[in-house]
Please model this.
Amino acid sequence: MSNKDHACTEERFLNDVKDHSMEIIRDDGVHRHIKFSRNGSSVYRLDLITWPGRLCIDGDFGTYVFSRVSDMFDFLRTRPERPEGKKGLFINPSYWGEKLLSIGTNAGYKEFNIELFENAVRHHFDNYIAHELEEGDDDFEAEIWEKIEDQVLSRSRDGEHAACDAINSFNYKGIEFIDFFDGVDCKSYTFDYTWCLYAIVYGISKYDEAKATNKESS
Model:
């Protein structure tokens, strides 16, 4: 169900869960099991399960287990790095990714991003032109780029392995992509992973709202 061509946005996530309701199955200190679904449907279903030092999200977009503090709701509820004035569901894919303990077999965390790869190739090429090629040699510049498009960029459409093989094997008139991947990250966070991060923050906020309402009515 993941859309690998686009990043998950807050708007997309909220639309997916707009008809969801919450069911608290267990609520005993840091031992919790909270389910969100559309009238029990498995479509876009998600379960939040916590126990000391762990939080697991499981559902339609995979399974991820995070570990940081005893009560993971406290850790993921509000972060000090939240930008001033930021409203809505704030997520931090990079920092929270460092707290990933386990990822389900069918889940993903980061994946090859062809746009980032192509941008890096272009940057590498422009740097070469600026420092190695004599000014005004436009014909040779066009010739090099044509070869790069044909031998590297066209193959990158076949995925990460093909892209890596193409960039490492490219050699045209002595021009190579030496140490291309040093300091270059051509991967982005998966749709499934970012969807689940939004789901965690959303789930915690709904849980907090329910707890506050119950406290006021008691």
